[in-house]
Amino acid sequence: MLSFHNLFIMKLASTTVLLLLHLICHGQAEISDQVAVKGLIERPFTINLKTIGSLQPEVHNNLNIVCSSGETKKELRSFRGVALKRILDSAGIVMPRPKERGKYYIAVRATDGYTTLYAWNEIYNNPTGNHVFLIYEENGQPIREDGRFVMICGNDVVTGPRHVKWVSSISVEKLP
Ligand SMILES: Nc1nc2c(c(=O)[nH]1)N[C@H]1C(S)=C(S)[C@@H](COP(=O)(O)O)O[C@H]1N2
Ligand SMILES: [Mo]
């Protein structure tokens, strides 16, 4: 005989299965329509699709997104975005003791908690700095399923891990 308790367990199980199916089929996180630029900077601001045009967007071609497994996940024929370096320069990094430059890093965070880091030295003293972009168009179209803003690093050999979908913040931080 079915007790209320059993019915409750069955309901809970079916809800969980539906939820898991949804996640597996869609695999999408919450979409953020803006990116907060924050942390150790003079001028905190938010980037959205209306304001990003003022940060001198660039169009570049041909970037493959390759997972650590070796699988090519995506082939971008073109993308439009703004350089992370330009975003940081317009925010103005606060660095009272330049000898501590090596302790500074930029954390790029997404709505699902996915996070990647760039050392300050990597952005300003290494070719990598010329290849990190916050993009909002892929193949001439606005980004849809991966959120509104995606961060890419075209200088990585394996480009998947630092390809951040659903970007919600860019934060300048410093090790203790
Ligand atoms: N926010 C977020 N970005 C992410 C991930 C993630 O789980 N969350 N996965 C990464 C991984 S492991 C890869 S290989 C690339 C490409 O994944 P895609 O094929 O789902 O676009 O996105 C990366 N970006
Ligand atoms: Mo991956």
TrEMBL record:
InterPro entries (alphabetical): OxRdtase_Mopterin-bd_dom, OxRdtase_Mopterin-bd_sf
Domain Oxidoreductase molybdopterin-binding, chain residue ranges per copy: 34-174
Record's protein name: Oxidoreductase molybdopterin-binding domain-containing protein
Species assigned in the record: Chitinophaga alhagiae
